[in-house]
Amino acid sequence: MRIFKAYKSPFVVETSKINRLMSVVRENFTRLKVPSEEHFEVVFAGGRHFATNSLEEVFQLDNSKGTRISEFSIRCFVDAKDRQGTANFFAEFDSAPPTGVRLSVGSNDAKWAADLFSSAEEQIERTFQTSMVLRLKSSPFVAFAPILVALVLLSAGLALTLGQVAIGEDLERTMC
Q1: Alpha carbon distance 125, 7 (integer Å)
Q2: What span, in angstroms and rounded, lies between the C-alpha atoms of 149 and 90?
């Protein structure tokens, strides 16, 4: 069974939130009672990749203006076909427009997969930015906003002009 969902939302990857997500993932993998592996990958804005098995190494990376991180992915898995079957977890935070997060959980144990997916989804949603400005900024309709504003202003100006002409004509008729 594989459960997958893509979220289109701006997000902030903070150490505390990723630690909580990994805590939930590790807790679920511990229930399988087989060793699991963890891999983390970072892609920088210039296209440089960094891969490691240590989350602490990821947190120590420079994410300043010159070396901005554009993607961060987490992959955890077991491959023990002789015992529990396969199980995997994948989460990717991608800042390329449209910004978003992809989450995937797979396992032969449907209940385990659904439990992990639900728990991980809750933690991932905590990384989302709820600011209206950020949500609008990442919206595909932002490109049309200046045109829409111009049309509204033009319409309002035209309505005011026509309204003044009509009022002026009414005043002239009543004065005559």
Answers
A1: 9
A2: 41
Distance CA(62)–CA(68), nearest Å, equals 8
Question: In 3D, which of 78, 135, 75 has the Cα closest to residue 103?
Answer: 75
CA distance 50 to 92: 14
Averaged confidence pLDDT in the chain: 84
Domain boundaries, the chain: 2-134, 139-175
Q: What's the pLDDT band for 139 if we cut at 50, 70, 90?
A: low
10 Å Cβ neighbour count for 32?
17
Distance between CA atoms of residues 11 and 95, nearest Å: 8
Helix, strand, coil % (nearest 5) of the chain? 45, 30, 25
pTM of the model: 0.71
